[in-house]
Design goal:
Number of strands: 7
CATH topology: Glycerol-3-phosphate (1)-acyltransferase
Number of helices: 6
Structural class: alpha/beta
Number of domains: 1
Strand order of the largest sheet: 1-7-6-2-5-3-4
CATH class: Alpha Beta
Radius of gyration: 16 Å
Length: 213
């Protein structure tokens, strides 16, 4: 996309400066419980894969990651506003053309992982309208294959629309090592699709745990 610098992956100080503000606002507006933060690797690149229910999902997930910054994709339309683009870019967002071939964004996503950063992805490709996980698209497995990436499954659970004092549970599962994904350089499209569904299956298992008692 014109105007976004795909030439290098960076992490800025604004992200860390905004974290306390985000945590304070989260506590004021919502009831968010985090489970499994100890499963988040402190070093190295990996894909964080989660179900998707709301536009604020990357924020909720990122606020639970005290020691890592999260890089995430956003539809290119969000980056057409210069002010929004500035802040999204400073907070590690990058644009992607949804529903089409966007090799530049795809290669950038692969580089994020290869260079030791955390790439956040929503395998479904869009938000669920009924709060339940949907079928995964192949993208998460394509990037895992090319980056030879481990995958951290995450679930976001709620049963209502996001509004003031909504209760959400964010669960970070155990990392799935790349070797357990069943992928290699010769993997077929069918195997890649199967891998994406398996990743989504791990997310569903976390989601089915619901809220904590």
């Amino acid at each position: 996309m014109k105007g976004f610098d795909y030439s290098k992956v960076t992490e800025g100080s604004l992200y860390d400066r905004m974290r306390p503000v985000g945590i304070a606002l989260e506590k004021m507006l919502y009831k968010v419980e985090y489970v499994g933060e100890e499963n988040i690797p402190e070093n190295g690149g990996f894909i964080l894969a989660s179900n998707h229910i709301n536009a604020l999902d990357p924020v909720f997930i990122a606020l639970g990651m005290k020691k890592r910054q999260l890089h995430f994709m956003g539809k290119k339309e969000l980056f057409e506003n210069p002010i929004v683009k500035y802040f999204l870019s400073k907070l590690n967002g990058f644009p992607i053309v949804r529903g089409g071939a966007d090799s530049e964004a795809l290669n950038y996503a692969i580089r994020i992982v290869k260079e030791g950063y955390v790439l956040g992805m929503f395998p479904e490709g869009t938000r669920s309208k009924n709060f339940k996980p949907a079928r995964a698209k192949s993208g998460v497995a394509v990037i895992a294959k090319e980056a030879k990436a481990d995958v951290l499954p995450v679930s976001i659970y709620t049963s209502t629309d996001l509004k003031k004092h909504t209760k959400l549970t964010i669960r970070y599962g155990e990392v799935i090592p790349y070797e357990k994904l069943g992928l290699n350089d010769e993997s077929s499209r069918e195997e890649i699709r199967g891998c994406a569904q398996n990743i989504m299956g791990e997310i569903v298992k976390l989601w089915e745990m619901g809220h904590c008692e």
